[in-house]
Amino acid sequence: MRKLYVIFVLLLTCALLFSCAPSEESAQVAELKKQNAALQAEIDELKNKIAELEKVIAEAKPITISWWHAMRGARGKVVDNMIKAFNDSQSKYKVVATYKGAYDEVVNAGVAAYRAKKQPHILQSFEVGTQTMMLSGAIYPVYKLMKDSGYNIDWSGYLQPVLSYYMNADGNLMSMPFNSSTPVMYYNVDLFKKAGIPPLSKDKAITWDELGEITGKLVKSGVPGGMVTAWQSWTQVENYSAIHNIPFATRANGYEGLDTELTINNPKVVNHIARLKSWMADKRFLYGGQKYQGPKAEFMAQNAGVYIDSISGIAKLKKAVKDFKWDVAPLPVESWMKKPQNSIIGGASLWVFNGHDKKDYKGVAAFLKHLAKTDMQIYWHKETGYFPITLNAYETLKKQGYYKENPYQEVGIKQMTRRTPTKISRGLRLGYFIQIRNIINEEFELVWNDTKTPQAALDNAVKRSNKKLREFEKIYK
């Protein structure tokens, strides 16, 4: 009986043990789940803190704004200093500039980058690319960029002959003027004095007939050549036409329609080129090349007493010329042009590519605003010779007496602003203008080497250029 009792007790104990085991196990599992939940909460909290930290770090890291330009050498250093001033003034954006070569190389690189969706934020394009850039569909117009970014810009406070070149038909600014220039006439004061030629006026232009006499005297005094000219299409056709209010092309030089045609084979321009060609015979005119390097070298070597080039040449001459005195005068005019028109601008402007994040564009707008600040424009003008694009910068310089100390710096400004621009003298708006300039230069080469007459060369330049204009019209009409 006792044995049965023991067995019963054992069975009862086992039953109790088995009945309790699941309950204890559930308690342990519940405890583990509780601990796991607490641990997961800590992990989630840590993840949130990491995300917040990453956000803070991302916000602390400046947004990079890329700018491709064509400014090298001394001008490139000035650009770098202007960028540094912006980057040091704030921590939200960082502008990174890249030199991409000459103007045409920069534009070609920008086009290729845009097609590959790797475009910079800002591209510097020279003035002849204006029509192409405007109609490209790749541009975020500057007037809209500034407005969208909260900047209410009073565009009337800018030099209008500069600003109007980059406006569309509705008067809206499409790109921001940057390095704006116009051609002027440099001359060697020492060679003039030796030849018995008095200094030239900085306000009143001499006539082309008078320049013929001056260059003749220079040659007779022993100077190898009378004059050289840089950028021959820009200085001797485009600006010559504007100053004398001669249409370069129909449809208001292209402003009023893509169906424009060149008219540079008109009698006045033909006679002007024929005159230069005739001066080559007695060395009153030396041909130094299509761009500026050759003509500048001839002037600096004192092989020519007169040198026509951009006002931006001022900075280069100030730095490089040590052995003679030089000065600046307005471009010559024809004797029959009693009230010469304004000259037109050259140089380049800053175009903003679309396709970037919205937050980036606030930085682009802030940087463009920075470049237009009075102190930046004064610095740019003094260091490079390019125009200060704002009236406030120009007036400030005058009040400071800068132009009394450096009167040659104001010659180009006065020349460009001496008359209200007409529909003809305000500028040029032509498609494929880069190619058209090359065509004109090619045809001039044939004049200078006696292959063609001025009339034949300009006729062919018109014919070839009109073909390019029709190609452009077909694409964008």
Any overview of this molecule?
This protein is of the alpha/beta class. It has two domains: 176 residues, Periplasmic binding protein-like II (D-Maltodextrin-Binding Protein, domain 2); 216 residues, Periplasmic binding protein-like II (D-Maltodextrin-Binding Protein, domain 2, 3-Layer(aba) Sandwich). The protein is 53% helix and 11% strand. The strands form two sheets. Strands 2-1-3-9-4 form a five-stranded mixed beta sheet. The chain has a four-stranded mixed beta sheet with strand order 6-7-5-8. The radius of gyration is 35 Å and the shape is elongated. The protein starts with a helix and ends with a helix. About 3% of the residues have low confidence.
Provide tags for this entry.
single chain, 477 residues, alpha/beta, D-Maltodextrin-Binding Protein, domain 2, 5-stranded mixed beta sheet, 4-stranded mixed beta sheet, 9 strands
What's a concise summary of this model?
This protein is an alpha/beta fold and 477 residues long. Helices cover 53% and strands 11% of the residues.
CATH superfamily of the largest domain: Periplasmic binding protein-like II
Mean pLDDT: 91
CATH architecture verdict of the largest domain: 3-Layer(aba) Sandwich
The stretches of 5 or more residues where confidence is low (pLDDT under 50) are: 4-18
SSE order, one letter for each helix or strand: HEHEHEHHHEEHHEHHHHEHEEHHHHHHH
Reported for the largest beta sheet, the result is: 5 strands, mixed
The first-level CATH class of the largest domain is given as Alpha Beta
CATH topology of the largest domain: D-Maltodextrin-Binding Protein, domain 2
Mass-distribution shape:
elongated
The helix content, as a percent range, equals 40-55%
Based on CA atoms alone, the radius of gyration comes out at 35 Å
Count of all domains? 2
Structural class: alpha/beta
